[in-house]
Amino acid sequence: MHELDDRKLKILEAIIQNYLETGEPVGSRTISKYTDLNLSSATIRNEMSDLEEMGYITQPHTSAGRIPTDKGYRLYVDLLLLDKNQELENMREILIDKADRLEHLLQHVAKLLAANTNYATMVTTPQYKKKVKFIQLTEIDEGQLLAVIVFDKNIVKNKIIKVATSLDKETLLKLNIVLNTFLQGLDLTSINLPIISQMKEQAGEYREIVNDILEAIVQVVSEGDDFKVYTSGATNILRYPELSDIEKASELLYTFEEKKLLSDLIQDRMDDEESRGIQVYIGNETPIEAMKDCSVVTATYEIEEGVYGKVGIIGPKRMDYERVVGTLQNLMVQLDDIFKNKT
Question: Is the pLDDT reported for residue 69 higher than 50?
């Protein structure tokens, strides 16, 4: 257990966060403005002296402010990890319960739409731009690191990274601090060349590991293993003569059963803001070969800001567009009411 009371912990945290942001030694006056402790500069100086005696901060030269030591960084990261682990544990049961309820709701929506329209339907799970919340590197074997990447919405991904050499604890600690300082709160589109260059400069001789971490983030975000497409009413397409040809029907039924092409179709348009309303794709406008004689009408539901999913109805090109569009508009209103009033 650490030896610091809440006041000293808050001051240490303020010193570390300020130093990470500025790279400059931190003085008592800065801390008095930085925290909500409402302490005088003299009291903060006394606390900083205690922290220095305990080895958590040091004064690089006379009359300068303080900077964190490795011991200070270690306590900061350990407490940060403890907070994140506790937060994830507290959210675990709530998230599982919500996920189960959402899955049943979306499956029910697909079946209901198919029954009401006599067309085939698809509903996707919601997607969003994943922002990095926290990264933790741990050596699990010589030449192997485990990168635990926590995204917002408490999505956790793990990735094994091979490295050329074994890393000591202090090096891992500093790499963790560099990664979290620069990447917290960013999604892939926000990680630009200047940020990468600064990270590599801070990482020094371990700059290649920064590359490996960034590649790992790209891979886990791109995996899309939490993306699902629920379908219903695939056999409804056999009601229409132009789609009931054995070869065409087989290709369509396979597309619905296999779902990969449907998933690609939806995900290609998920980030396009212009496709967030009701969209109609007729014949060749649909990139799926098996659907060239079909029309696809999609609508977007929103669980919360930035978290979107798609609902689609697939039928012949002579489908009743007015009825389909009206049905989807009504459904979006109902889903919006459900999600905004959920507990």
Answer: yes
